[in-house]
């Protein structure tokens, strides 16, 4: 199931106000749902599908907005809430903020204020969540609740991991490169009684061959040339906590022997040391190789394999958990928004469909890097297919300033235009909105110039990308097809 754009719940007893806000929000890519009372809003947020953001009118019959907000917070609803009020008094605003509102709008609210406020509220909520996750990770308290994914494959991983966390049993996490084996290992540690103690990760495939023993077990000062000071080693750094041995299949055979002894005896021999040092370390290992095949080929010790493979957990490939891609994309957008100072609200539905259809040979790591690139280059509130050119094959539209041709583009030969003035007043004699007039003008130009977009843009004095954007906003794609 493809998750659509961010959903906004508009709570107002005035249907006209609801429709006006819906029109503004939907034009910017949001999905909008309605509630005409506080009770209906509470039902929606607690049992009816929820929403990412709530726009809540303060003055409603039967239940006020403040009463509704208080009940939602008491029920555990954490979605950001922006209150709407015709009374901008300080006391009203203070009461709303104390009740848990994130922002307030004075009615009638302008389209720009509405969109900026909605984007800011969503961005702040994602930022707070990301800061919380990073803090937990830094403290060694990440849990399986922090793992993204509720599909069958990830539910199995979480279930197995939660059971393993209750003991000190050695765990071997298997799976392709980039599936997030270290993330699972950190969650396992954070869910155990060793949470808050050191979590030390070692990539065995990246260790210099001549320094593996020193890095893992430590060395004394002067133990070898260049040993100018004493080093504890990864095992002793992880004492009391967990040692994560990533890519364990890359470890040379001679080091496998010493690793096996350290695990079996609960002690390490530092290079140049006079006596063994006792350690208390939980071992979590991971590999993208088939260790049983390596054992059969003589590349991995059988006794060490059985010592590590007591409790195996297989991390699924991303192509086997496509239903988790929208949630992963949301998580990455939140992080990169914070890191890059961007305000991307989410993914357009067609973009999510594109990402879910891709096979992702590099798994979650590849998706993460693709979203990072898209965030850096994105100009729209929602990521578009052209923000993922390696997947969609689409190039981003050129900015309007870059569209001026080096040489004049010849005009399309057409007969003189008939006198067809665009109406500026409506049937009641009031001025029509600029938006309505602009739509009629563009539609008229499409008909007159037979859908030749370069000529239309030139005649209107705007760039082609600007014209295409306005055509999309005004819903005039069908007019282009008919004219063509």
Strand content: 5-15%
Rg over C-alpha atoms, rounded to the nearest angstrom: 30 Å
Number of strands: 14
How is the main sheet built? 5 strands, parallel
State the distance separating the first and last CA atoms: 35 Å
What's the average pLDDT?
Answer: 86
Using the alpha-carbon principal axes, give the shape. Answer: elongated
Helix count from the secondary structure assignment? 20
Main structural class: alpha/beta
Strand order of the largest sheet: 2-1-3-4-5
| Helix content, binned percent | 40-55%
Low-confidence stretches: 401-415
Explain this structure.
With 484 residues, this protein is of the alpha/beta class. Helix content is 45%, strand content 12%. The protein is built from 20 helices and 14 strands. The chain has helices spanning 15-27, 38-47, 65-74, 90-98, 111-138, 152-165, 181-190, 212-217, 234-237, 253-265, 291-297, 302-308, 325-340, 349-357, 363-377, 389-392, 434-448, 453-460, 464-474, 477-483, and strands at 7-11, 31-35, 53-57, 81-85, 103-106, 171-174, 199-203, 242-246, 267-268, 277-278, 282-287, 311-314, 346-347, 382-383. The strands form four sheets. The protein has a five-stranded parallel beta sheet with strand order 2-1-3-4-5, with helices on both faces. A five-stranded parallel beta sheet has the order 7-8-11-6-12. A hairpin with an 8-residue loop joins β9 (267-268) and β10 (277-278). The radius of gyration is 30 Å and the shape is elongated. It starts with 6 loop residues before the first strand and ends with a helix. Mean pLDDT is 86; it is low at 401-415.
């Amino acid at each position: 199931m493809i998750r659509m754009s961010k959903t906004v719940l508009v709570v107002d007893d005035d249907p006209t106000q609801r429709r006006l806000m819906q029109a503004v929000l939907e034009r910017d890519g949001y999905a909008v749902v309605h509630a005409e009372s506080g009770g209906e809003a509470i039902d929606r947020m607690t049992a009816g599908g929820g929403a990412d953001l709530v726009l809540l009118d303060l003055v409603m019959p039967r239940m006020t907005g403040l009463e509704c907000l208080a009940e939602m917070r008491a029920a555990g609803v954490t979605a950001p809430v922006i209150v709407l009020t015709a009374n901008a008094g300080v006391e009203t605003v203070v009461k709303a903020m104390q009740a848990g509102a994130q922002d307030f709008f004075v009615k009638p609210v302008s389209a720009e204020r509405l969109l900026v406020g909605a984007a800011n509220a969503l961005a702040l909520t994602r930022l707070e969540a990301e800061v919380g996750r990073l803090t937990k990770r830094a403290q060694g308290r990440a849990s399986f609740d922090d793992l993204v994914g509720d599909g069958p494959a990830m539910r199995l991983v979480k279930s197995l991991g939660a059971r393993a966390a209750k003991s000190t049993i050695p765990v071997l996490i298997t799976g392709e490169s980039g599936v997030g084996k270290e993330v699972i290992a950190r969650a396992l540690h954070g869910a155990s009684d060793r949470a808050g103690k050191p979590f030390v990760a070692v990539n065995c495939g990246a260790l210099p061959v001549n320094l593996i023993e020193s890095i893992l077990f430590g060395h004394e000062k002067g133990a070898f040339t260049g040993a100018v000071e004493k080093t504890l080693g990864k095992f002793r750094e992880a004492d009391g906590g967990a040692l994560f041995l990533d890519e364990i299949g890359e470890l040379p055979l001679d080091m496998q022997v010493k690793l096996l002894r350290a695990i079996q005896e609960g002690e390490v021999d530092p290079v140049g040391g006079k006596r063994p040092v006792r350690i208390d370390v939980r071992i979590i290992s991971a590999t993208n190789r088939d260790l049983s095949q390596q054992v059969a080929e003589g590349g991995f010790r059988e006794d060490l394999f059985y010592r590590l493979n007591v409790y195996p957990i297989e991390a699924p490939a991303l192509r086997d958990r496509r239903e988790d891609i929208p949630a992963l994309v949301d998580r990455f957008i939140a992080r990169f928004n914070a890191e890059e100072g961007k305000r991307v609200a989410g993914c357009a539905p067609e973009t999510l469909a594109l990402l879910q259809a891709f096979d992702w040979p590099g798994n979650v790591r590849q998706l993460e890097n693709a979203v990072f690139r898209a965030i850096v280059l994105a100009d729209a509130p929602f990521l578009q297919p052209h923000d993922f050119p390696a997947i969609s094959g689409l190039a981003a539209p050129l900015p309007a300033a870059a569209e001026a041709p080096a040489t004049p583009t010849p005009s399309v030969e057409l007969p003189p235009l008939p006198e067809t003035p665009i109406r500026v007043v409506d049937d009641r004699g009031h001025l029509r909105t600029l938006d309505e007039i602009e739509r009629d003008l563009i539609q008229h130009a499409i008909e007159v110039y037979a859908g030749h977009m370069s000529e239309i843009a030139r005649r209107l004095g705007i760039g082609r990308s600007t014209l295409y954007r306005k055509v999309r906003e005004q819903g005039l794609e069908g007019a282009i097809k008919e004219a063509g």
